[in-house]
Amino acid sequence: MQNPFKFYLYEDNAYIYDTNQQRLFQMGVEESGDVDCDMEKTILAEAEEISKEKAWEVSGLDKLQPC
After folding, report:
1. Is residue 48 within 8 Å of residue 9, measured between CB atoms?
2. Which of 5, 36, 58, 66 supports an S-S bond with 14, CB 3.0-4.6 Å?
3. Is residue 62 a contact partner of residue 28, using CB atoms and an 8 Å limit?
4. pLDDT of the residue at 24
């Protein structure tokens, strides 16, 4: 089974793209959320595809401690 997620780096922010829903989300501790349609097109066209591990590192999510 293919992983439905792709990870991107754009302007020092990490993003996750869900290929099933065809939606892009910003990843982050400080700020996370949906990306508007116009910005999504720009990010998908210009961003660098990165690994999941790199996306977690850039977003700061790798520093969170589980409950």
Report:
1. yes
2. 58
3. no
4. 96
